[in-house]
Specification:
It is built from eleven helices and ten strands. By secondary structure, the protein is of the alpha/beta class.
Length: about 260
């Protein structure tokens, strides 16, 4: 059975899927063609936070258009990938320490937007798992660690968020130093496999709070890192900045045994 890496993807604005000229669009499209095809995909999205951990349990989850103000064509998009209730049950067992609740919510755009580029046929089962509202990086690292066995069973674990995410600072032009300094720190620290520093990025990374006024868009990285296993290191697969301040950096996390 193939062993998968785990991924952290900066999914960008929802309309990224409408812009094939965008480097991040091209990256995600190519990524799906170069990977070993997984038997299923588990996604922890920045756009699903719950106070009690939740796991998508539907057989045909709906496509959620959880945004406004974008072109009409975007609201017509659907990602009809099947769910996998058996895998959802397995996730609930693996995550038993958090007493997860099965839900039939659907796929938010942190799930379906990148997957629609990577796997446009929508024929690989997908199970979404929520983030824990109010929990820190260390707790989300633990959540990921509980999922490590999945990647040895050809299940692809993805954290979908954004390497930087300050929507109040969107701009045209080159990124400011506070963005590039954080993004460079993140890439270096992930590639070093410094799990402790990444879990404590809030106090250790430069300009952490400016780049992440709230934490939900970076916490999926900790889930992906934890799921990769002890000693995992990251490899930056893509880097770039959108709207002046949104890093599109993406990582694959693997161990020496991967």
């Amino acid at each position: 059975m193939p062993t998968q890496p785990t991924l952290f993807l900066s999914h960008g604005a929802p309309d990224l899927i409408l812009h094939p000229e965008d480097p991040a669009h091209a990256f995600l499209t190519a990524l799906g063609t170069t990977m070993t095809r997984p038997r299923a995909i588990v996604v922890a999205s920045a756009h699903w936070e719950t106070r009690i951990l939740a796991v998508e349990h539907g057989t045909r989850p709906r496509t959620i258009h959880d945004f406004s103000g974008f072109p009409a064509a975007l609201y017509q998009r659907r990602y009809p990938a099947p769910g996998n209730p058996a895998l959802a049950d397995q996730l609930c067992d693996l995550l038993a320490d958090w007493h997860p609740v099965p839900q039939e919510r659907g796929y938010d755009h942190g799930v379906w937007a990148p997957l629609s580029l990577m796997f446009p046929a929508a024929d690989i089962p997908v199970v979404a798992v929520s983030l824990l509202h109010g929990a820190d990086g260390a707790e989300h690292l633990r959540l990921g660690q509980a999922l490590e066995s999945l990647r040895h069973d050809n299940v692809l674990v993805i954290g979908s968020g954004s390497a930087t995410h300050n929507l109040g600072a969107l701009r045209h032009g080159p990124p400011p130093l506070w963005v590039t300094a954080f993004d460079d720190w993140l890439a270096k620290t992930a590639e070093q496999g410094d799990t402790k520093a990444l879990a404590n990025y809030r106090t250790l990374a430069p300009h952490a709070r400016e780049n992440h006024p709230s934490e939900e868009h970076l916490l999926p990285l900790l889930v992906a890192l934890g799921a990769a296993g002890p000693g995992a290191k990251g490899k930056a697969l893509h880097r770039g900045i959108a709207y002046g301040v949104l890093s599109m950096t993406a990582f694959a996390f693997t161990t020496g045994a991967a």
